[in-house]
Design goal:
It is a single chain. The protein has about 180 residues and is mostly helical. The chain folds into two domains: about 60 residues, no CATH class; about 100 residues, Glycoprotein, Type 4 Pilin (2-Layer Sandwich). It has four helices and two strands; from the N terminus they run ααααββ. Strands 1-2 form a two-stranded antiparallel ribbon. Strand 1 and strand 2 form a beta hairpin. Helix 2 packs antiparallel against helix 3 and helix 3 packs across helix 4. The longest helix is centred in the middle third of the chain and has 29 residues. It is rod-shaped, with a radius of gyration of 28 Å. The termini are far apart.
Length: about 180
C-alpha cells in the first residue's frame, strides 16, 4: 500500500512543466517569495501536488533567510555596527556645526541636543551606533559654559571607553571658534 500526503485525484490535472519551472524564480529574493506563495496555492487548490508546495515553500524560505541574514549582518553584527561608526563620525561633525550656528543665533550653546530641532531645523542627533527598536539613543552632549562635549558611545554602548567616537573639528581659523572640548 502506497501512502501519499496528497493523493492524486482525477479531478486535478498534473501540473505542466512550465509551472514547475516557475520555481526557478524562487532564487530571486522577494520575487521568489511571491512566486512561492502562488506555487503553494496552485499546489493545494489546482493540482494537489506536494512537489509544488515544497518548491513554493523553498522560495519563501530562501527570501526569509536571505533578508533575515542581511538584516542581522547589517544591524547587529560587529562588522555592520562598525559601518555605523563611520556614519556617526560624519553626523557628529554636522551636529558640531549646528551647535556653533545655534550659538551664533542665540548667544549660547543649547542645554540639550533636542533644542537644535526647534524652528523647523533638521539635525541628526540620534546615535546610529545604538540601534534599537524600543529606544532612541542620542549623541552624548553636555553644555559646559563657553564649551560643550559631544561624542558617540561607540559600538559597545558604554561612554568613556576606547571606542567612543568624536566629531572632526577643524583647526581654529580665527573666524569660527569651536567650543567643543574632549572630556
Amino acid at each position: 500500500m502506497k501512502m501519499t500526503i496528497m493523493p492524486e485525484n482525477e479531478n486535478h490535472p498534473k501540473p505542466p512543466l512550465a509551472v514547475y519551472l516557475l520555481g526557478i524564480l524562487g532564487i530571486i529574493p522577494l520575487i521568489g517569495a511571491i512566486v512561492g506563495f502562488i506555487l503553494i496555492i496552485l499546489g493545494i487548490a489546482a493540482y494537489r501536488s506536494w512537489k509544488l508546495i515544497v518548491i513554493g515553500g523553498a522560495g519563501i524560505l530562501w527570501s526569509v533567510v536571505l533578508y533575515g541574514s542581511l538584516f542581522y549582518f547589517g544591524f547587529f553584527s560587529p562588522m555592520g555596527r562598525n559601518g555605523f561608526a563611520k556614519i556617526a563620525k560624519q553626523e557628529l561633525t554636522e551636529v558640531a556645526h549646528d551647535l556653533e550656528l545655534y550659538k551664533l543665533e542665540n548667544g549660547d550653546y543649547p542645554d540639550s541636543l533636542q533644542q537644535l530641532l526647534k524652528g523647523n531645523r533638521l539635525a541628526f542627533i540620534n546615535d546610529p551606533t545604538q540601534f534599537g527598536f524600543m529606544k532612541t539613543t542620542y549623541f552624548q552632549y553636555a553644555h559646559r559654559g563657553d564649551h560643550y562635549t559631544l561624542f558617540s558611545v561607540g559600538v559597545d554602548g558604554v561612554a568613556h571607553t576606547k571606542d567612543d567616537i568624536f566629531p572632526v573639528i577643524p583647526p581654529d581659523t580665527g573666524r569660527i571658534h569651536y567650543g567643543w572640548i574632549k572630556e
